[in-house]
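Quick one, probably user error.
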């Protein structure tokens, strides 16, 4: 089983094997950026995963030198930091040993398979449609600069690197880390995606050439986790998040995504937020494939960003879902690209929307350094321009960000006295090239596979030894595991999710916990419960609408608070088609919610729609041509997955 990570400016990904590397920061990077202040580690809630399963429950059927697996172990070290280790196995026995070693490690939090990741931009071809930054006028950035320019704020860009020598980024990019090559220092970008993202956030502004940035006085901390094709591993993303939090980042942008939640990343996010870091991620670009949930955007504590176009409509590629928090411009965004590919160019994707939000978060932090991640998220969501359905909706979240209104909600002491040029500065000529984006990756990914395996890095990171780590004396970290049914089930199926909590190998009995459930639209709502004598909690429900469930185990005087992985369930409509008379067919649908349904006829080459309608439980269509094959099709909504009936010859 392998997992998928993508950057969210959609581009093609070359095939290759999983990387064989220890995903820790090279020892040489320790002095490349100032570490955070010493002292007691902030409190954060770890996520446990894979600690009680047998190795064979975690491993794929086939493992060989041609089909290796990467085992990722996450431990909590003596200082409270999550430490991620990745090792490759080319045989089953080796993989089993690595899993058992990870499960027995002191401070163990999670053992899992690594997840490939990719950028999330959308190809725009070679015919630029606009010669200016429409997003600046839409967001009234020049007005926002009267309150803050992001001075003193560091934004980490976890991406394909950043071209630090770019003429419109020179002086804005701090020394960073390259987790693909295992180096540190001056950043480069062999792909171009990260450079485009960085330019939106903090390009040099008011210099008479090039583009303007949203937070022109912020600084970029480059963390390279994606290779030259825009692919990478979730273990590197997790390591990069911890690195950013430890090296002074106040905001993290991740224009990338995976089809699976990964505990090492969830733990890294919790760690970063406990250090006061705002975490922003792209929501994904697979709307035409039913908007499969994208991680880390859907992780707890992450601001998930959808994409809008110049008319404030949602972008055709932008994912929808209950995890979307806000929207921002993401279609045809003009920004910096590597000099070798044109210096400036257009890209589209939720990858381009996410840095708009990260940059506005930097403006807010620059206006009031005391703002917490929750306060910044509240300022963004409470002032967003409501689009689509009234209130929060799956297309826009709370709405398209409104930087001016968001800044109006925070303190004014740090407003700049000399803001940059009042109008964005754009290149006087049309760019000669666009970023090297290619065809959009296949969206047919599941939680266990990717259509585009990632490429093995050319060299292994020169990693420091992994600290063994132990929890604080006398404080236990319970382990929460969960089991449920298949994630997509027929509409109305009754599903039980069983959570088991153990501590030091024994049931965590009669302990306080909360069952937290999120519907298709809206956040989690929690209800108090208690573990059984066997340390279990069961949640049973008929699946009539998409929902997610997880268990949060409360902290005690002698134990940490922990959370399970999230289990998401999707009801699939059940549709049957039957003859009901001469020239007549009746479609029966279980799970009809007024979504689009259609009766289709096969004409020998393709399926042709005969009639389309709003789905009801039963619909009869008469006066049909005989001698042809027909089928009924039910579309997908945010709450119910679609389905296709068996074929009927009339």
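Nope, works fine. Designed sequence:
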């Amino acid at each position: 089983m392998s997992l998928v990570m993508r950057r969210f400016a959609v581009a093609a990904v070359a095939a290759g094997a999983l990387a064989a590397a220890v995903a820790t920061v090279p020892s040489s990077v320790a002095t490349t950026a100032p570490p955070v202040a010493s002292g007691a580690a902030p409190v954060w809630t770890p996520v446990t995963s894979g600690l009680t399963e047998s190795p064979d429950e975690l491993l794929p059927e086939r493992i060989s030198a041609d089909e290796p697996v990467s085992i990722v172990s996450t431990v909590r070290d003596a200082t409270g930091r999550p430490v991620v280790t990745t090792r490759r196995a080319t045989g089953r026995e080796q993989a089993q040993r690595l899993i058992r070693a990870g499960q027995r490690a002191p401070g163990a939090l999670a053992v899992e398979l690594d997840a490939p990741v990719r950028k999330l931009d959308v190809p725009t071809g070679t015919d630029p449609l606009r010669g200016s930054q429409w997003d600046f006028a839409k967001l009234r950035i020049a007005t926002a600069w009267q309150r803050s320019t992001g001075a003193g704020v560091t934004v980490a860009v976890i991406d394909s690197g950043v071209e630090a020598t770019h003429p419109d980024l020179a002086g804005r990019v701090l020394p960073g880390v390259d987790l693909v090559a295992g180096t540190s220092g001056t950043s480069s970008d062999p792909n171009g995606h990260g450079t485009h993202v960085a330019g939106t956030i903090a390009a040099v502004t008011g210099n008479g050439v090039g583009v303007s940035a949203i937070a022109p006085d912020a600084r970029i901390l480059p963390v390279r986790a994606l290779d030259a094709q825009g692919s990478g591993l979730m273990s590197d993303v997790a390591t990069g998040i911890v690195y950013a939090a430890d090296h002074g980042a106040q905001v993290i942008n991740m224009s990338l995504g995976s089809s699976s939640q990964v505990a090492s990343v969830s733990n890294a996010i919790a760690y970063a937020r406990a250090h006061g870091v705002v975490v922003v991620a792209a929501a994904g670009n697979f709307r035409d494939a039913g908007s499969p949930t994208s991680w880390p955007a859907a992780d707890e504590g992450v601001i998930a960003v959808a994409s809008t176009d110049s008319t404030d409509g949602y972008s055709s590629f932008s994912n929808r879902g209950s995890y979307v928090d806000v929207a921002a411009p993401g279609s045809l965004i003009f920004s910096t690209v590597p000099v070798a590919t044109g210096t400036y160019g257009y890209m589209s994707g939720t990858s381009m929307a996410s840095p708009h939000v990260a940059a506005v978060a930097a403006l807010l932090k620059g206006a009031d350094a005391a703002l917490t991640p929750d306060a910044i998220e509240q300022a963004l969501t409470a002032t967003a321009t409501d689009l689509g359905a009234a209130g929060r909706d799956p297309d826009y979240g709370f709405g398209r960000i409104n930087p001016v209104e968001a800044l109006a909600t925070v303190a004014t002491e740090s407003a700049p006295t000399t803001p940059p040029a009042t109008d964005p500065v754009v290149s006087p000529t049309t760019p000669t090239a666009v970023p090297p984006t290619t065809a959009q990756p296949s969206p047919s990914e599941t939680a266990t596979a990717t259509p585009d395996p990632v490429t093995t890095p050319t060299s292994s990171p020169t990693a420091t030894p992994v600290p063994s780590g132990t929890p604080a004396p006398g404080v236990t970290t319970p382990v929460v595991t969960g089991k449920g049914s298949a994630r997509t089930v027929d509409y109305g199926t009754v599903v039980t999710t069983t959570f088991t909590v153990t501590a030091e190998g024994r049931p965590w009995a009669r302990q306080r916990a909360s069952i937290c459930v999120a519907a298709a639209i809206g956040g989690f709502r929690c209800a108090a419960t208690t573990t059984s004598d066997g340390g279990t909690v069961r949640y049973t429900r008929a699946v009539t609408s998409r929902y997610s469930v997880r268990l949060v185990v409360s902290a005690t005087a002698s134990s940490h608070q922990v959370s399970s992985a999230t289990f998401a369930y999707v009801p699939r409509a059940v549709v049957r088609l039957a003859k009901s008379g001469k020239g007549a067919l009746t479609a029966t649908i279980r799970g009809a919610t007024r979504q689009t349904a259609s009766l289709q006829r096969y004409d020998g080459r393709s399926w042709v729609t005969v009639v389309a309608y709003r789905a009801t439980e039963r619909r009869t269509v008469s006066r049909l041509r005989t001698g042809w094959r027909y089928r009924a099709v039910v579309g997908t909504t945010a709450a119910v997955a679609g389905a296709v009936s068996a074929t009927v010859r009339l």
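The mean pLDDT is 81.
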